[in-house]
Write a structure and sequence with these properties.
The structure is a homotetramer of 129-residue chains. Chain A has 129 residues and is α+β, with helices and mostly antiparallel strands. Chain A is 41% helix and 28% strand. Chain A is globular and about 45 Å long.
Chain lengths: 129, 129, 129, 129
């Protein structure tokens, strides 16, 4: 891990009152596993995926665009905001089965150069009166 | 107005669903004022730029993203729609002085690989009743 | 026509060198008729529609949203920018047959309270190498 | 870390497509830092708010639009997708201080007629390597 990242993490650990670094990491891992449990269902649903990345990082813009085009049917559209000379925020609206949404979201978020990625589950509203 | 022109206009008014002739003329006048505000002036205004391109064409996604980041202050946000395995539609909303908007629009539209580009002028709505 | 609009139009008429007001209106009408000729074709295409409106004007937000929902299949998505305390810019991406796009665009633009509306034709990119 | 946890995590890493364990942990740490930057701080940050609502519910479209206009400076732009004849998905991109974003998000999500609302924190990317 980069030194700056380690230091910021240690500050967070102190603020949150963790006994040590591995205790904190264990909690993060548990939380990720809980999130992973989502999406057992097979009904069409909606989600958004937010990505923050530095567009100077290799061909990241092209790579993400490529993944998105392979998943045409799932991605309704994408809102792109240029944050500063380096950083982009991309918010995608997806519609499809949970497993399919999860799969493309995982690929996008784990792409090298993505600084922050988040899947946020929504709904088509149909099953909610 | 010549009778023929009046008749053609009345047909257009019906087709477009306007309540009456003066409502339709008011819209034409407003549109002319927007064009005018746009062409000469130095007042802040709005515009959209639409681009259709094949994202497989060289590093076009990165190139466009680069131009956009150089013009951060002008570009409010961009809506991106994946059309098929090759083609993207990007619609940008811009806010700034007409000359600056025109300049970045020209650069984007003339980028190699852009199949279709169009600047469409709008307004901030302030000067229009 | 509101007095402020008439005055702005008279200024524009002088700048453009028209002999009188009705000469200028005749030109606007002719131009609208030319635009109307577009879209005889029957192939699926893309377009954007931009609308500027004052969201305080009656129930305009609900009215536009209603028209849009009646045309679900045509409207891919809409980008909404809040311009100031009164004015909104809405940019819609549409996909469908020219006649259908033209029809919904006409309804939206002619809605009372829309200050400025513009249909801008794009392409799906398929027929363009 | 307990062996069971390590194994579950390794499964998750494979499923998500990370290159290795430390790449995955780095992402968890970054995410935790984003959450943290978010909760307490006074630094400008980014967030998205997703809302699903039935646009036939009273004047909900106008109400939401009104709240959004009162918070002009915070809302960069909004992506609107018409889900079916009743339901809308709105995804807003916000930029500002955490407390202000949280406040407007709470008001939007608690608006009567909103079926599902979610604040998802992001980052401007500046503080993250």
């Amino acid at each position: 891990m980069e030194l700056r990242l380690v230091r910021a993490f240690d500050r967070l650990i102190r603020e949150k009152g963790y006994a040590n670094r591995s205790e904190a990491i264990r909690d993060l891992v548990r939380d990720a596993l809980v999130q992973q449990e989502w999406g057992a269902g097979d009904e069409e649903t909606m989600a958004t995926v937010s990505l923050v990345y530095d567009h100077h990082h290799g061909d990241i813009t092209g790579t993400l665009n490529g993944i998105e085009h392979e998943n045409l049917g799932l991605i309704v559209s994408t809102l792109h905001v240029h944050l500063d000379h380096h950083n982009c925020l991309e918010v995608m609206v997806l519609r499809g089965k949970p497993a399919a949404i999860r799969a493309v979201s995982d690929r996008l978020i784990s792409t090298k150069g993505v600084k922050h990625g988040k899947l946020s589950v929504a709904t088509t509203g149909k099953s909610i009166v």
